[in-house]
Amino acid sequence: MPPRFRRLAVWIPLGLASGLPLKLIGDTLQTWMKRENVDYTTIGLFALVGLPYNLKFLWAPIMDRLAPSFPGFRGRRKGWLLLTQVGLVLALVALANLQPARNLSLVAALALVVAFFSASQDVVSDAFRAESLEPSELGLGNALHIGSYRIAMLISGAGALILVGQHVSWRTVYLLMATLMAMGVVGTWLSPPSLHDSPPPKNLQEAVVEPFREFMGRRGAWEVLAFAVLYKLGDMLAQALPTLFYLDVGFTLTQIGTITKFVGTGAIIVGMAAGGTLMLHMKLKRALVVFGILQGISSLAYLWLAHAGPRLSLLALTVSLENLCYGLGLAAFTSFLMGQCHLKYTATQFALLSSLTALTRTVLAAPAGSLVKHWGWSNYFLFCTVIAVPGMLMLMRFDRWAKPETEEAAAG
Asked: In 250-311, which residue ranges form alpha helices assigned H by DSSP?
């Protein structure tokens, strides 16, 4: 097997393993609880089990510092991947053997355990991807990983509900998902060693403090942080309230669910794959510019749909275009973030950067409803296009942003 093919192919099973747990402690678990007549207040509180995904940067330094090793899984990243994946399999098996109505506290505790292992797997998987791929391969590697991640979410979300609808028990569904989770172990075992492996931090203090010091000591560090927030802001705002928009246009929930889940997911995967393939032959700055322009303009498709009314073909076209351009931009943006991580502190720095970019879909997207209420949908989507401009203008400074120190520079 050619080395490049092997380096890239393993991100299919590893992406599936990363995406599988999310729905199993989210929508799918909520549906299971509703079927067992757990009250809505309690179901709503279960959203809190997702907190480890937001707080993963707190323990990322430990995953940079320590290097567990097992026969056949040697290396700092592969050891952690094995630990988190085995933990997920065991936690899902345990969860399958409970009943929410009778074992609510245990279900909550195990859901939190699943979230912790899943968030930890994401930390080390992102770091391993940055260290095991050449810079020109990051776009396609990220595309394969995120595309597989999205497919896994369909399997553990819509797929799980379809099985239950065919009278398969919840226990069997969760045991099946635990079995599929084992694919991650196979992917970890097959994955080649890191191309850019570096010695871990010497102590926990260095693992916690040094990633911040190294990053903020670079020229243009504050600009990089601002760019990380602004680059996809317009895109995230455009997708902040999609279901409400589609309902206001006049579409039914069935139409919305079918088009957004299947057509939208497919378009994102195609966009990521196309972006990653193009980036094998395209400079990162150029990819950020071209894909950024496309994702900014794609928001205008919503404006078109708002004026055209509830035509199913236009809904499919709008969702396809928006998600295709979203995938293109995500391929370039994720590669940029990974390129900003020092190889010695990849897990910590990428966890911090990815947590920062999450502001665009949480805190900064929070006023979306108020803006729609006062401006209307048409003006809102025009605003989404305009707000994408500052992030694009920041790319004029791209060549002045210092890259992470090399090991040689750090040693000197």
From this structure: 253-258, 264-278, 284-298, 300-308
pTM of the full structure = 0.76
How many whole angstroms separate alpha carbon 134 and alpha carbon 346? 15
Residue 159: count of CB within 10 angstroms of its CB: 19
75: left (phi over 0), alpha (psi -120 to 50) or beta: left
Percent helix, strand, coil in the chain (nearest 5)? Answer: 80, 0, 20
Angstrom distance (rounded) from CA 224 to CA 218? 10
Q: What is the pLDDT of residue 88?
A: 97
Q: Which of 206, 209, 316 is nearest to 267 (CA)?
A: 316
Rounded Cα–Cα distance for residues 88 and 269 (Å): 25
- Write down the CATH superfamily of domain 204-401: MFS general substrate transporter like domains (1.20.1250.20)
Provide the pLDDT for residue 352: 83
> Do the domains 204-401 and 3-190 match in fold?
yes
The stretch 97-114 carries a mean pLDDT of: 94
In this structure, the dihedral spanned by the alpha carbons of residues 323, 325, 331 and 333, taken in order and rounded to 10 degrees, is: -110
Burial pattern 115-138, b for ≥16 Cβ within 10 A else e, equals: bbbbbbbbbbbbbbbbbbbeebbb
Distance of alpha carbon 21 from alpha carbon 57, whole angstroms: 19
Domains of the chain by residue range: 3-190, 204-401
Q: What confidence tier does 104 reach under pLDDT thresholds 50, 70, 90?
A: very high
Average pLDDT, the chain: 87
Using alpha carbons, select from 400, 5, 10, 341 the residue that is nearest to residue 196. 341
Does the pLDDT of residue 409 top 50, yes or no? no
Q: Return the CATH architecture of domain 3-190.
A: Up-down Bundle (1.20)
